[in-house]
Amino acid sequence: NAGVTQTPKFQVLKTGQSMTLQCAQDMNHEYMSWYRQDPGMGLRLIHYSVGAGITDQGEVPNGYNVSRSTTEDFPLRLLSAAPSQTSVYFCASSYPTGGHYEQFFGPGTRLTVL
Amino acid sequence: AQSVTQLDSQVPVFEEAPVELRCNYSSSVSVYLFWYVQYPNQGLQLLLKYLSGSTLVKGINGFEAEFNKSQTSFHLRKPSVHISDTAEYFCAVSDAGGYNKLIFGAGTRLAVHP
Question: Which of residues 15-44 of B touch A (CB under 8 A)?
Answer without folding.
Answer: 32, 36, 42-44
